[in-house]
Design a protein that fits this description.
Length: 170
């Protein structure tokens, strides 16, 4: 479980960096950035958001924000996968890894689609619908993974309280 905690803390640190450094500067008027919309923007709202972004905001989004978001999904998925492997086996492990994998793939798809939307002159309706779909899949997958991990950590904690390890006398 040590690797789980290392990966989890690394992903939490990147998440905190995005929340404190890049994300606050990516609000356009009152509209939050794509990454901060759990169920994505409908295409019309996405176009509104894109129209309100300044050149500096686009540069921040395409630069530091996307750099941080290049590593965050892998670290988070790695934490979940490591934690699940430590607590599950066989079919249950395979089932638990489905939302981890789908969340990872959807997050990278979302990042690619955000990049395309930010660099396109008038992004297509289809691109914006795909972006919204990737965001929804990411949100649901990560939520399922986080809830399952929380339940497993609670279960492990209860087991540890019920059956404490004997002291080694050191």
């Amino acid at each position: 479980m040590r690797l789980f905690w290392i990966l989890f803390m690394a992903s939490a640190a990147l998440f905190a960096a995005m929340q404190v450094w890049t994300m606050p500067h990516l609000f356009a008027a009152a509209l939050p950035p794509f990454d901060a919309q759990p169920f994505g923007y409908p295409p019309r709202a996405a176009l509104d958001y894109l129209a309100l972004l300044s050149d500096d905001q686009r540069a921040l989004y395409l630069g530091p924000q996307h750099l941080l978001d290049l590593f965050y999904p892998a670290l988070l998925a790695g934490a979940f996968a490591t934690g699940f492997r430590a607590q599950l086996a066989g079919r249950w492990l395979n089932l638990a890894l489905i939302p981890v994998a789908s969340g990872l793939l959807a997050d990278y798809a979302e990042n690619l689609l955000v990049r395309l939307a930010l660099t396109a002159e008038g992004p297509s309706h289809a691109l914006l619908q795909a972006l919204q779909a990737a965001t929804v899949i990411k949100t649901l997958s990560v939520t399922v993974s986080a809830l399952l991990m929380t339940a497993l950590l609670i279960r492990a904690g209860v087991r540890r309280l019920r059956h404490p390890r004997p002291s080694t006398g050191r």
